[in-house]
Amino acid sequence: MATEFKHTELFGGAITANLPSGFADVSTIRQVPDNQEVYLEANGFTSLIIDLTERVTQFSTDKEALEYHLADIIAEDETKQIVSVFENVQLSNFPPPPPDPGAARRPHAPTNTDIHLTLIRLVEQSTDIVITLNVPHIPNETNPEDPVAGDDEAVRKQLNERTEKAVLMKEAWEMVVGSVEVRDWSLFGTE
């Protein structure tokens, strides 16, 4: 089942992106800071956040800047397992970056969350655009590396659903990030 997308204006139309059509604008139900756009999937768990932040300059590499933004998202006392920190994504709507100088829980509350994070660094605008897709996993989802996962039909079904969700979210992530376009650069105080 393919995800459908809708061309969406963000930050008053200054930025556009193709977002999954099943995601709703959180600002219609609660206040969202002016430097953020927040969208929530219909089930209320998976979220997409586009955050405009001041460009962090104290790091010598983009990877370090990305890790800084990730640490800002994750609470210090939370366990984190980073599978892939840095992955190049083609951003056809942006100029290429300058060279990098050196390379109490509810019963159905998520127990862990996959975080897809992209950092777009706008040097001339002194801005970092942090795009985050948070995909939570609820209790009883099966670890794909569990050797007994294939022994029970219900467990296999859960595993298949989790795998399908992961594939759909990865495809959605690639579509969102690949479609981000700045339409009005004055958003950043520059023209």
From TrEMBL:
Gene3D superfamilies: Mog1/PsbP, alpha/beta/alpha sandwich (3.40.1000.10). InterPro entries: Mog1, Mog1/PsbP_a/b/a-sand. The keyword Protein transport applies. Keywords: Protein transport, Transport. Belongs to the MOG1 family. PANTHER family: RAN GUANINE NUCLEOTIDE RELEASE FACTOR (PTHR15837). This is Ran guanine nucleotide release factor. It comes from Lepraria finkii. The lineage of its organism: Eukaryota, Fungi, Dikarya, Ascomycota, Pezizomycotina.
